[in-house]
Design a protein that fits this description.
The protein contains 1 helix and 36 strands. By secondary structure, the protein is mainly β. A hairpin with a 2-residue loop joins β3 and β4.
């Protein structure tokens, strides 16, 4: 059945217990393979990236409309970029994203692609003290795009950058003293200040929450301590009513990651520690606020150990909505969920009919 058909059923159906269904399985022929990021919804069409597959097996940009998947661009390596690990952002009618590798210096790119599939490299990372290897998507703030690189910069420990009209500027290079290191996630804009996380660095070398002004002044708000506090955040933050929510990939009471909240002033509290019984383990994606409840995914854990989709209230009550089972079901969801009507859509980077990943929907 088509994506449109399935979504129409979801919109018409009454609210029952949560259910999951695969909308598309990647991997046939020169199709896309291994989606590692979340999707975006533009007018009922889902757009995303895969880190492999395509004509050159170096990744793709794809769209899915009513169950029909189309590869818009196959990355070819070289100056074109290769292996995108991040999702897309829409700006002025075009889509923008990053590739982890490739480009003129081999250290990744920022690219632009039209809905018709015309791709242009806007910036190649790696020259001088520029950033290297962007793992996260970008955000639009007033027509400029802001993002992070997981390496490069003055200390080769990652950067925050902005790009405006094709001109890229490094706002902050991580690595000084007890600063964060190796940001793997994107940013969130709260009142003109950018907030984000780093995977390592900080006072305990377990990652930090930071803020940076548009002028590039960076402040560490919280350094994770690798205990019940959480450790190694791989995902970005979301803003819900002035409070920031996020996940850590490790740490917590069971060592399998956490959901936390933090005020813009830096007061942090763990809401949930993953890993008990058939709970999820190792969340790598950002959360989503969907009707006042937070939703997310874990890469592992659940009934079979191959990942989960979960919900959690702002007060910290967590429920597993679906345990991925491998096979045609897909497994190891690493990207965030998005809301489409009354349902949630996401991707798994493995499993499915061809074992190359899936796009799925969940009815909460």
């Amino acid at each position: 059945m088509s994506v449109g058909g399935l979504l129409s059923i979801v919109l018409a159906a009454p609210a029952f217990a949560s259910s999951e269904a695969v909308l598309f399985s990647f991997g046939s022929g020169k199709d896309a393979k291994y989606p590692e990021a979340g999707l975006i919804n533009i007018g009922g069409t889902l757009y995303g990236t895969t880190s492999a597959g395509g004509a050159h097996n170096l990744g793709t940009v794809f769209k899915i409309t009513r169950g029909v998947e189309t590869v818009l661009h196959s990355f070819a390596g070289g100056k074109d970029g290769a292996s995108p690990q991040a999702g897309l952002v829409e700006l002025f009618g075009a889509l923008y994203g990053t590739t982890y590798k490739g480009g003129a210096n081999g250290d990744g790119t920022i690219f632009r692609i039209t809905p018709a599939g015309v791709e242009t490299v806007m910036h190649a990372f790696g020259s001088a003290k520029d950033g290297n290897y962007p793992e996260a998507g970008m955000i639009d703030v007033g027509g400029a795009l802001y993002g992070t690189t997981s390496a490069g910069g003055t200390h080769n420990l990652g950067t925050v950058f902005k790009i405006t009209r094709g001109v890229e500027t490094v706002l902050h290079s991580f690595g000084n003293a007890k600063d964060g290191q190796l940001p793997r996630a994107g940013l969130v804009n709260v009142g003109g200040t950018l907030y984000g996380t780093t995977y390592s660095g900080g006072a305990h070398n377990s990652g930090v929450v930071f803020k940076v002004t548009p002028a590039g002044v960076e402040t560490v708000l919280h350094a994770f301590a690798d205990g019940r506090d959480g450790a190694a955040p791989s995902a970005g933050l979301i803003n819900v009513g002035g409070m920031l929510f996020g996940t850590t990939y490790g740490g917590g009471a069971h060592g399998n990651g956490t959901v936390f909240k933090i005020t813009p002033a830096g007061v942090e509290k763990v809401l949930h520690a993953f890993g008990s019984a058939n709970d999820g383990k190792y969340p790598a994606a950002s959360l989503i606020d969907f009707g006042g409840t937070l939703y997310g995914t874990t890469v592992y854990g659940g009934t079979i150990g191959l990942g989960t989709a979960f919900k959690i209230t702002p007060a910290g009550a967590e429920t597993v909505l679906h345990s991925f089972g491998g096979g045609t079901d897909g497994f190891t969801p690493a990207g965030n969920l998005i809301g489409v009507g009354k349902t949630l859509c996401g991707a798994t980077d493995d499993g499915g009919t061809h074992s190359d990943g899936t796009v799925f929907k969940i009815t909460p």
